[in-house]
């Protein structure tokens, strides 16, 4: 059985795949995948460093598989707070700039390393020209 993946298709070009972290974040994976397919505005989290994000619209997410340190290709879901109850999905895309986010977030998925150059190109493009639509689908292979 192949691992389930997210397929992210960006409106200005580029498709990347990320393997879902079903083993360590089964509840978050199930909750997020129940919202798929979806198309959202991809924004840039400038204060977090090289991070793009969408607002998931999810509320009352249960913490699991929390990580503070982030790395390239990591896709996380924020826990939200009183001021921002809807959880965001962050996508960290570059080695070249420091990832500044140290908040504990749920480790949802990992972009496969063969997509890192394209992912960084997309992230830099979103930095300069956001928002950009992204369509997210659940697939089992790429």
Protein model, in words:
This protein is globular. The two termini are 14 Å apart. A hairpin with a 4-residue loop joins strand 1 (5-10) and strand 2 (15-20). It has two helices and nine strands, in the order ββαββββββαβ. The protein has 142 residues and is an alpha+beta fold. Strands 1-2-8-6-7-4-3-9 form an eight-stranded antiparallel β-barrel.
Task: Offer a few descriptive terms.
alpha+beta, 8-stranded antiparallel beta barrel, globular
Largest sheet: 8 strands, antiparallel, barrel
Q: In angstroms, what is the radius of gyration?
A: 14 Å
Spans of at least 5 consecutive residues with low confidence: none
Indicate the proportion of strand residues: 35-45%
Q: What is the helix tally?
A: 2
Helix content: 10-25%
Strand order of the largest sheet: 1-2-8-6-7-4-3-9
On the 0 to 100 scale, the average pLDDT is 90
* Sheet/helix structural class: alpha+beta
End-to-end Cα distance? 14 Å
Outline: globular
Order of helical and strand elements: EEHEEEEEEHE
Number of strands: 9
Short description:
The chain is 15% helix and 35% strand. The chain has 142 residues and is of the alpha+beta class. The mean pLDDT is 90.
Secondary-structure map:
Layout: E1 5-10, E2 15-20, H1 26-33, E3 38-44, E4 51-55, E5 66-67, E6 74-77, E7 88-92, E8 105-111, H2 116-128, E9 132-139
Antiparallel strand pairs: 1-2, 1-9, 2-8, 3-4, 3-9, 4-7, 5-8, 6-7, 6-8
